[in-house]
Amino acid sequence: MLDLIIVGAGPAGITASVYAARKRMNFIVITGDIGGQAAWSGDVENYTGYQFVTGPELAIKFEEHMRQYKIDVKENEYIIDIKKDSDFFAVKTDKAAYQAKTIIIASGKKSKELNVPGEKKFKNKGLTYCATCDGPLFLDKNVAVIGGGNSALDAVLQLTKIAKHIYLINIASNLSGDKIMRSKVEQNSKVSVLNSTQVTEISGEKMVNKIKIKNASGKDDILSVEGVFVEIGLVPNSDFSYAIEKNNFGEIKVNCHNETNIAGIFAAGDVTDVPEKQIIIAAGEGAKAALSVSRYLMQQK
Amino acid sequence: MDKKVKVYSTPTCPFCIRVKQFLKDNNIIFEDIDVSKDQSQAEIMVEKSGQIGVPVLDIDGDIVVGFDKEQIKNLLGL
């Protein structure tokens, strides 16, 4: 029987694993990838001790720190279900089953999907969730960015240096996001902003060649684009347990000790309802969660 | 026998950085192709992989899309 299973290896999960290792707990980490959203971040200038570091570099540093402790990390493995048994938790993944006395859920967030026909089929075939990564592949092409917040504006501004024309398709009646970025986008002749408009279908042959849109008055239109950049925010990876209490956004509710509504299950980082999603906050929450687990295990003895 | 490894990447893509670091850590010599600077190579990459996304690895003709550590390990015998 394991003392602990940590779900996720982003800043929160990795920090929890370092603390758990130092408390000599018998535990494993189950995770899809290592680094989480930090590995996708651009420049990080607010992680204490690093005046400037890139997301991937910081993620590599985190991983090195974790690996110092010979932790058993089950990578590329996904949680399907967590069930409470008499005095332990049964955890089922896509590869195996485990039992543990406690769990820390630090599974983070992922890009929100549009949920329209064609989205799955054309993923990486013109449709992408990472403008920073794939933007340069759309040189002199017409593209659409979906969203209206900072990440969408950021994607548009990156693409103005690459693409031929950019349609910014925003479901709300006005763009949100920082004013400086908004005016840069609105003043750029390569950008058409379509407010109160939603995407209803992505289509093409092998690759994307058009999208269907609908404006506020219900009128359909077709845009010829070869690239679609989805930037409509993030959703928590919290689908695997229905018994754990969540807020309206699907974020797991925790108290200041990182306890969830189920005794023995703790949560940390961006998957929780803790305000402010920051690398340094997630890391701190991971540390707190591991210390809470340590205290909980001691009380159980 | 050493396999010929090409990495198609963009400078800003986090997983491109990770995949290249992974290869370096394992002492794999590879050709780094920046598709943001070379449009003809970008087209070759799309053609080879049947998709538009980086990173793409060409390991002796076997194509890997994304930082798929397991597949890369298998193909390189790591």
Question: Keyphrases for this structure?
Answer:
heterodimer, A: 301 residues, alpha/beta, five-stranded parallel beta sheet, 30% strand, B: alpha+beta, four-stranded mixed beta sheet, 40% helix
| Biggest sheet descriptor of chain B | 4 strands, mixed
Largest interface: A-B, 29 and 22 residues
Low-pLDDT segments of chain A: none
Helix-strand makeup class of chain B:
alpha+beta
Order of strands across the widest beta sheet of chain B? 2-1-3-4
Average pLDDT over all residues of chain B: 93
Give me a quick take on this structure.
Helix content of chain A is 23%, strand content 30%.
Give a topology summary.
The complex is a heterodimer of chains A (301) and B (78).
Chain A: E1 2-7, H1 11-22, E2 27-31, E3 43-44, E4 53-54, H2 55-67, E5 72-75, E6 79-84, E7 89-93, E8 97-105, E9 109-111, E10 127-128, H3 131-134, E11 142-146, H4 150-159, E12 165-169, H5 179-187, E13 191-194, E14 197-204, E15 208-215, E16 220-224, E17 227-230, E18 234-236, E19 265-267, H6 279-300
Parallel strand pairs in A: 1-2, 1-8, 2-5, 8-19, 10-17, 11-12, 11-17, 12-13
Antiparallel strand pairs in A: 3-4, 6-7, 7-8, 9-18, 14-15, 15-16
Chain B: E1 5-9, H1 14-25, E2 30-34, H2 39-49, E3 56-59, E4 62-65, H3 69-76
Parallel strand pairs in B: 1-2
Antiparallel strand pairs in B: 1-3, 3-4
Structure description:
The complex is a heterodimer of chains A (301) and B (78). Chain A is an alpha/beta fold and 301 residues long. Chain A is 23% helix and 30% strand. In chain A, strands 1, 2, 5, 6, 7, 8 and 19 form a 7-stranded mixed β-sheet that branches. A 5-stranded parallel β-sheet of chain A has the order 10-17-11-12-13. In chain A, strands 14-15-16 form a 3-stranded antiparallel β-sheet, with no helix packed on it. In chain A, a hairpin with a 3-residue loop joins strand 7 and strand 8 (97-105). By secondary structure, chain B is an alpha+beta fold. Chain B is 40% helix and 23% strand. Chain B contains 3 helices and 4 strands; from the N terminus they run E-H-E-H-E-E-H. In chain B, strands 2-1-3-4 form a 4-stranded mixed β-sheet, sandwiched between helices. The longest helix of chain B is centred in the N-terminal third of the chain and has 12 residues, at 14-25. Chain B is globular, with a radius of gyration of 11 Å. The mean pLDDT of chain B is 93.
